[in-house]
Amino acid sequence: MKSIYFKNFAATAAMVMASFLILGAAFVFLGRSYVINNYRESMEANADEVCRSAQALTREGALNDWSLRMTLSTLSQITGNHIFLCGQDGIVVSCSDMNIACAHLGKAIDSAVFTTLHGGGTFNQVSTLNGFYATPHYVVAKAIPSADGTNTIGYVFVAADTATMTGSWDTFVWVFLTAAVGVMVLALMLAFMTSKRMAQPLEEMARATRQFAHGDFSARVEDDGRTDEVGALVSAFNTMADSLEKSEQRRNAFIANVSHELKTPMTTIAGFADGILDGTIPKEEEDKYLATIADETRRLSRLVRSMLDLSRMESTGMDLSRRREFDILETIISTLLNFEARATEKALNVDLQLPENHINVIADPDAITRVIYNLMDNAVKFAAPGSTLTVSLWKTDGKAYVSVRDTGETIPESDLPFIFDRFHKSDRSRSLDRDGVGLGLYLVKSILDAHGEDIAVTSRDGVTDFVFTLTLAPPAPRSSDKRAKKTE
C-alpha cells in the first residue's frame, strides 16, 4: 500500500512543484517588468508636470526661481523621485533637494545626454549621468519649451535609484514567496491525503483480486459513498465480484446437479444389471427390471441430448445468419399437434386464442420451435387432468406475444426467481417428475436471451402462465410502392 501511496504522492507533488515554479518564474519576470514600466510612466508624468510648472512660474531663462524649486521639492517628496533642472548650457540651476546649498547645483551634465535629447526629444535610460550619481539611476529627461513653444528654455531631469524602484518589488516578491511556500506545503498535504484516499480502494481491489485467484469470491471493496471516478470503479468492482460469486455458486450447483442426475440412473442401471447377472433377481422378474434399466437409459440419453442441445445453442444462438422471417402462428399450430395424444390422455381441453391473420416474426425458426415445444411439454406435464390448456398469440408495439397457460399446482413464489436456472427443481409436487432433467426452461431462457427477447412467468391461484416475446417482421411493401420504385 505504501508504494502506491508514495508513487501517487510523488507524481502529484512533482506536478504541484512544477506548477509553482512555472507560476513563480512568470510572476517574477512579468511582475518586475510591470513595476518598472509603471515607474517609468510615473516619472514621465512627473517630467511633464515639471515642464508645465516651469512654463507657468518662470520668466525667460529664470529656471532657478524659488517658487519653482519649492514645486520640485513638493513633487519629489510625493513621488520619491529626484528632480533637477538644467539651463540650455547643461548646468544644473534648480534641484528638488531641501538643502539650499545643494551639491548638485552648478554641475554640468554630460553633453551626450543632450545629444540624445536633441535627437529624440526625450532621454530614458539607466545611467549615472557620467558620475552625476554615485549609483545607477533610472533617468527620464525632457526639454522645457518656452511659453509660446518657439524655443527651449531648459531641461528637466527626473531620476530614481534602481534600488528604490525594485525595493518595494523585492519586498512583495518575498511576501509572494512566503505565501507560495505556505500554499505549496498545504497543497502537498492535500495531495498526500488525496493520494492516500485514492490508493486505498485500489489496494483493496488488489487484495480482493488475490483472493479471487484462490477461489474466494466473498471479498468486497468498502464503498464509502464517494461519487467520483474511483467511487464508480469501486461500485463496478463490487458488482463484478457479486457476479463472479453468483457464477461460482451456479457452477458448483451445476456440477452437483449433473453429478446427481447422472448418479441416480447409473446406480439404478448398475444395481439391477448386477442383480440379473448374479441371480438375485428371479428369472420371471427380469423383464420388469430390464424395462426399468431401459427407462433409466433413455433418461440418461435425454439428459445428454439436452446438454448437447444447450451447448450447441450457446455456440450458435447469436448466429444472425440462422434467423429469417417465418409465420409464428403456423409454428405454434404444428408444434401443438405433437401433444395431441398426451392432451387426450389427460383429458385436457386445449383453448387456442389465435388471430385469423398470419403474424410473421424474425428469429431462428428451429430455436423458437424448441422454445414452444418445451413450454407446451411443461404445461401438459403439470396441468391437472381435465383442466384447460390455453395458448394465446397477439401483437403490439412491434412485438409478437406468445402465452402458454396451464391450470394445476402453483409454482411456489420462492422458486419463481430460479425457475429458469440449470437443473432447478422444486421439492414441491409440481416438480416431482422423474422424466425431466431440469434443462428445459433454462434452454428456453437461453434461446430467448440470444435473440434479445424477454420471457416472464406468473403462477398464482393454480394458474401458471409463461409469456415470451418475438420481434415482428417489417411489413412487405405494397404493390403501389413497388410500381413507384420501378418508375423511379
Provide a descriptive summary of the structure in words.
The chain has 488 residues and is an alpha+beta fold. Strands 2-1-5-4-3 form a five-stranded antiparallel sheet, with helices on both faces. A five-stranded mixed sheet has the order 7-9-10-12-11, with helices on one face. The protein folds into three domains: 2-168, Beta-Lactamase, CATH 3.30.450; 229-314, Helix Hairpins; 320-471, Heat Shock Protein 90 (2-Layer Sandwich). The chain contains eleven helices and twelve strands. The longest helix has 56 residues, at 2-57. A hairpin with a 2-residue loop joins strand 9 and strand 10 (399-407).
Features:
11 helices; 488 residues; alpha+beta; five-stranded antiparallel sheet; Heat Shock Protein 90; 12 strands; Beta-Lactamase; 3 domains; five-stranded mixed sheet; rod-shaped; single chain; Helix Hairpins
SSE arrangement:
Blueprint: H1 2-57, H2 66-79, E1 82-86, E2 92-95, H3 111-120, E3 122-127, E4 137-145, E5 152-161, H4 162-213, H5 229-277, H6 286-316, E6 324-327, H7 328-336, H8 340-345, E7 349-353, E8 360-363, H9 365-382, E9 388-396, E10 399-407, H10 440-450, E11 455-460, E12 463-471, H11 479-487
Parallel strand pairs: 7-9
Antiparallel strand pairs: 1-2, 1-5, 3-4, 4-5, 6-8, 9-10, 10-12, 11-12
Helix pairs in contact: 1-2, 1-4, 5-6, 6-10, 7-9, 9-10
- The H/E string reads HHEEHEEEHHHEHHEEHEEHEEH
Largest beta-sheet details: 5 strands, antiparallel
What CATH architecture of the largest domain would you give?
A: 2-Layer Sandwich
Shape field = rod-shaped
Mean pLDDT: 80
Helical percentage: 40-55%
Going across the biggest sheet, name each strand in turn: 2-1-5-4-3
Would you tell me which CATH topology of the largest domain applies?
Beta-Lactamase
Helical element count?
Answer: 11
CATH homologous superfamily label of the largest domain: PAS domain
State the secondary-structure class.
Answer: alpha+beta
Q: How many domains?
A: 3
